[in-house]
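#struct-help
A.M.: can someone run this one for me? Single chain, 160 residues.
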Amino acid sequence: MAITLGRKAFLRELVVAALLSLTLPMVSVAGVYFYIHISAMNPIGLALGVIVVSGLTAIPLIFYASLRLNAATLARERASAGVPEQLIHKPLEGPFLLRRSIVAGSVQSRIIAGFPVCIGFGIEFALMAYLTNSIGFLLLHVPIGATLAAQIIIAANLLR
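D.P.: on it. Structure tokens below:
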């Protein structure tokens, strides 16, 4: 028996994924706070500490949120489209741009699985652009915004 997911449960999974992705910018905000308020702190050590803490906490949480959202999207597709219509690709196979995905899934589930990454790194790059007054980080928002727009369209279709 295939597991399906209702609209409310799928929306809850989207919110959980977005909240889990906020750990990446929160670690950076904590690093900025320590840099501003603790003047005796070594900036290089602080930067390395932020990188290590992000690598040990935020990145695994974003990966977990992506896997969870991939499964939720597959379950929601079963509820909205039906099992026979669903085409699930094996890991490292599928359409051209999604061929490098390490998880099995449909095209829609693989695109939406990047939602936590877009939220986490989008906010992170916005924070970096604000702190450095540089337009270089803002240019990274173009591909992130385009991907986020595609994810919103797919999520809206699944929530109908």
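A.M.: thanks! The longest helix spans residues 43-81.
D.P.: also worth noting: The helical segments are 7-21, 23-37, 43-81, 107-112, 115-132, 141-159.
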